[in-house]
Design a protein that fits this description.
about 325 residues; alpha/beta; Quinone Oxidoreductase, Chain A, domain 1; six-stranded parallel sheet; 9 helices; metal-binding; ADH-like_N
Length: about 325
């Protein structure tokens, strides 16, 4: 039997249920994948609590994973049993095996491990579109990256630095600050001890930032606005502290004709061409050493509840994976 982690009712980590499920043969255009590693993400928690809406109950949690193709359905010609693959899909990843549409899979290069592949498909592709599509980071830019020691944060700090930016990060502890500094940050602000917007002003000598990447949400939104130069861009891409409350558009005017966007990965890889553009750029950056992929924790799939507790308690750094 296939094992999976499902949610039958919305709530805390305790609602994650490790159980047997039936898995039919792959259908038209599908492949069957034996998962080797599964990415752990805050968005998993958002679906579990109901902040993000699943199509219905019960549902299998998770969005990114990597594994081995074990069977192909009718019409599939570009994948074969034994291929190493990775994917980002809307739910269904917390399972030992699954079926997935072939056109949403990418083949893993030989030099990228299953663990790396699993965390690159959401966190890595998110970093790619944030720095290359939402705001094209270039030499001379000054960027602020919240949660700089997190899964997206560490990748974003490395890539922004490689692109020539001055990188300011925020972190919740000295240990996390040291990790961010080792991964591309020029300056790290301990947000629990300092007013980060004031420190950004000091660090930049009043020039502030071209762009703020904010995956934290409610707790950092106002300070993020105050950290931007005139006509700067706030990229709000996550809700780790809760959803951003309603605000008046006049605030953007008052802070200097600012721009705010709320992007999501799915809209940047909606076509096969876009998916492959992002994956190719991402894998190349890992292979040439631009990006290191720090995977600092691994949990058994059956311990998904513990993984969610640690993630929401800010215990984790970098990327974490679940192992079936």
């Amino acid at each position: 039997m296939v094992k999976a982690v499902r949610v039958h009712q919305l709530g805390g980590p305790e609602v994650l249920t490790y159980e047997d499920i039936d898995l039919p043969p792959p259908g038209q255009g599908e492949v069957r994948i034996l998962n080797h590693a599964i990415g752990l993400n805050f968005t998993d928690c958002y679906f579990r609590t109901g902040l993000y809406k699943a199509p219905g109950l019960p549902f299998i949690v998770g969005h990114e994973a990597s594994g081995e193709v074990t069977a192909v359905g009718p019409g599939v010609t570009n994948f074969h049993p034994g291929d190493r693959v990775a994917y980002y899909l809307n739910l269904g990843a917390y399972a030992t095996e699954r079926n997935a549409p072939a056109d949403r899979l990418v083949k893993l290069p030989d030099h990228i491990t299953y663990e790396q592949g699993a965390v690159l498909m959401l966190k890595g592709l998110t970093t790619w579109y944030l720095l290359h599509k939402t705001f094209h980071v270039q030499p001379g830019n000054r960027v602020l990256i919240h949660a700089a020691a997190g899964g997206v944060g560490l990748l974003a700090c490395q890539w922004a630095k490689a692109l020539g930016a001055t990188v300011i990060g925020t972190a919740g502890s000295k240990e996390k600050a040291d990790l961010a500094l080792a991964n591309g940050c020029d300056h790290v602000i301990l947000y629990k001890e300092e007013n980060f917007a004031e420190r950004v002003k000091q660090i930049s000598r009043g020039e502030l930032c071209d762009v703020v990447y904010d995956g934290v949400g409610k707790d950092t939104f106002q300070g993020s606005l105050r950290s931007l130069k005139k006509r700067g861009l706030l990229v709000s891409f996550g809700n780790a502290s809760g959803a951003v409350p309603p605000f008046s558009l006049s605030e953007l005017n008052a802070h200097g004709s600012l721009f705010v966007t709320r992007p999501k990965l799915a809209d940047h890889i909606s076509t096969r061409k876009e998916l492959m553009e992002g994956a190719d750029a991402l894998f190349a950056a890992v292979i040439d050493g631009t990006l290191r992929v720090p995977i600092n924790r691994a949990y058994a799939l059956k311990d998904a509840a513990k993984a969610h507790i640690d993630l929401e308690s800010r215990v984790t750094t970098g990327a974490s994976v679940l192992k079936p």
